[in-house]
Amino acid sequence: MKILIVDDNKNMRDMIKSIIKTNEVEFFEAENGLDAIKIFKDEEPDWVTMDIRMEGTDGIEATEKIMSSSSDAKIIMVTDYGDNYLRKRAREAGSIGYLLKENLLELKNIIH
Questions:
Q1: Could you list the residue range(s) of the whole structural domain that residue 14 is in?
Q2: Which of 28, 33, 47, 54 fits a disulfide with 4 by CB distance 3.0 to 4.6 angstroms?
Q3: For residue 111, what pLDDT band results from cuts at 50, 70 and 90?
């Protein structure tokens, strides 16, 4: 299984890896939405965890672009922002889930 972790904070990327790590997982990392789009096209990961607020191309815009090229992409927004407007925007962009970083351990139940 391939997983792309998109977050501008390396410590958060490392934490996500440690939560969902198994021998069958190959990880790819991006620190912004623009890199995420490129890596997604090159590697075609099974799952993407996507932060929302990042410099340049944010997670919602990156999700829209990834979904326009691969409508079966599985993207979960992983963010500190729990407001309904961002949840709605993420869903409209094509994400299949929205997880607050305070509930990060739930990723283990979602991905696998």
A1: 2-101
A2: 28
A3: confident
